[in-house]
Every structure is written in C-alpha cells, then in structure tokens.
Design brief:
Elements (H helix, E strand, L loop, with lengths): L5 E5 L4 H12 L5 E4 L3 H5 L1 H6 L7 E4 L2 E4 L1 H12 L10 H15 L1 H14 L6 H18 L13 H11 L12 H11 L17
Parallel strand pairs: 1-2
Antiparallel strand pairs: 1-3, 3-4
Helix pairs in contact: 1-4, 1-8, 5-6, 5-8, 6-7, 8-9
Length: 208
C-alpha cells in the first residue's frame, strides 16, 4: 500500500470534523489539517470542487475527495484498517454499526449536537424540542449501554466513533449527562482508547 497522502478539511470545534480526526488518530495515520472556518471559505470554488454542498469535513487521499464525516469513517476503515473490526464483517454486526451511524446523523445531530450548536455557534432552533430529543436519545443510549461496553459490538467500532463527539460534549449545549451513568462510563472507555485525541472544549452554560 502506498504512503497515505491525507488532508482533513474541517473545523476543530465541529463534532463532525472531530469524529474524522479522532479516527485518523486512532488508526495512527499521518494527515494534514486545514481549517475551513467561514462560510466564505466553504463557498469558494476550490472547496466546492471537493464538496459541492460546501460542507465540512472533507478528507482528501491523494486525488480522491471524500465528503461527509460518516463516509470518511467508512472509507478509512475499509482502506486502512480492513481487519481492525471497526466495520464488522458479520452481517448482523455490520447492520448494528450502520444503525448507529444513522442515529449519529439523526437523533444525535438533532438533539445533543443541535443543543450545542445553539449555544456555541448561535444556531436558531426550538430549545424545548431540541432538549427533548437529546433526553430521548441519551436515555435510549444509557439503557442500551447498561449491560454492554460499546454501542454495536464487544469492542469499539465506527458506531462509537460516530456518536462520541457530540454526546461527550452535550453539556456545552446545556444538556447534562448526570442522569446517564452508563453513557458517562462509555465516554470514559472511548477516551481511554490508544491514540484518542479530544475535541477542544467550549464553556458549559450556567443555566441548562
């Protein structure tokens, strides 16, 4: 296999970017990070050639461009760690991972992630609805993790990487993790993985 030529375009305060950066670090892959912080940068022609939707993150591997954080996870697992168990070969286990990738893009994004986006970036949304979604998915995750160590298998998989960033940083959106002991224990297990890198912390609001 040729030496990787990897560049990650993103924003370090973005949980979507962090899940890609976290997985690159867990795999021990060398990469460059290019900050794409502004709407003007994302609208520029050079960036739109990488992702016509103008969204971060985008990973380039040589001449190939892979937009979307979950797509980046799948690509890296298949390209650089096909035997690492990150995307299990067993059909039922693989389906379970895909289920959690969908949850990361669904309830996690519209719950804990959006709550944080409202506080950290000033996004507009109905707070009661967002916090109700966060409570629902965190309660579900806590019950799911009550008798297991990871989300989709007996070891860490892409499911855990996809869900970690926004769940771990939910308090930055005024969403307390105190009611969810199994979730907090799971967060600690992910943070103990060799090669773990944190996402920069933002202040926790005083009023939840």
């Amino acid at each position: 296999m040729s030496e990787p030529d990897l560049t990650l375009y993103g924003l370090r305060l973005s949980g979507h970017s962090h899940r890609a950066e976290l997985f690159l670090s867990l795999l021990g892959l060398p990469y460059r990070f290019v900050a794409v912080a502004s709407a003007e940068q994302r609208a520029a022609a050079d960036f739109r050639r990488l992702n016509p939707l103008g969204q971060i993150p985008v990973l380039t591997d040589g001449a190939a461009a892979i937009p979307d954080s979950n797509a980046i996870l799948v690509y890296l697992a298949a390209r650089y760690a096909p035997d690492g168990g990150w995307m299990p070969a067993d059909p039922l286990d693989a389906a379970e991972v895909q289920r959690w990738l969908s949850i990361a893009s669904g309830e996690v994004r519209t719950g804990p992630a959006l709550a944080r986006l409202m506080v950290v970036f000033g996004a507009l949304a109905d707070r009661a609805t967002v916090h109700a979604t966060a409570a629902r998915i965190l309660g579900f995750m806590d019950g799911h993790l009550a008798d297991r160590r990871h989300l989709a298998a007996d070891r860490a998989t892409l499911a855990d990487i996809a869900c970690y960033s926004y769940v771990a940083h939910a308090p930055e959106g005024g969403v307390s993790l105190a009611p969810y002991p199994a979730v907090r224990a799971w967060i600690a297990r992910i943070e103990a993985l060799p090669g773990f890198v944190p996402m920069p912390a933002s202040p926790i609001p005083e009023q939840a």
